[in-house]
Amino acid sequence: MYRDKFLNGKVASDAEGFVDISLLCTFSRMQSLLGIQLSETSTVSDETINDVADAVQASETLVLSEDKRRVRRLNVSFISYINLLHSSCDLADGLRNSHSIFFCVL
Predict the structure, then answer these.
(1) CA-CA distances (angstroms) from residue 88 to 1, 81, 93?
(2) Backbone angle region of 17, left / alpha / beta, with phi > 0 → left and psi within -120 to 50 → alpha
(3) Overall pTM surpassing 0.85 (yes/no)
């Protein structure tokens, strides 16, 4: 997902980093996993969204929104925090690598 500009944009557009389950269900890989086929004009059924939400509830790495219609990674805020630290570090040599994050935190 980190390389997917579309999804990154969707995550960034939500204050809490959630993405609509109905949007995820339109992706061809999700349609294949769910055994559904959507046309450009069709919408994702509530039953399908509920099925995905039920599966997400069992996940240790995903979190459902309170309305159970959106999902995000559990560590999205942690990643945002690390990225903020990383970008705000004053690195003497200008190198940005994983060791510099730990240097800035310490």
Answers:
(1) 24, 11, 14
(2) left
(3) no
What domains sit in the chain, N to C, each tagged with a CATH number? 1-74 (1.10.10.10), 75-106 (no CATH)
Q: How many residues does the chain have?
A: 106
Average pLDDT for residues 50-78, to the nearest whole number?
Answer: 88
Compute CA 46 distance to the chain's CA centroid, rounded to the nearest angstrom. Answer: 21
pLDDT digits (tens, 9 = 90+) for 29-61: 999 999 999 988 889 999 999 999 999 998 888
Q: Which of 35, 16, 15, 17 shows the shortest CA–CA distance to 25?
A: 35
Residue 12's alpha-carbon distances to 15, 95, 103, 104, in angstroms, are: 7, 26, 27, 25
12-17 own/partner pairs: CB under 8 Å, 24+ apart: 14/70, 14/72, 16/65, 16/72, 16/76, 17/72, 17/73, 17/76, 17/77, 17/80
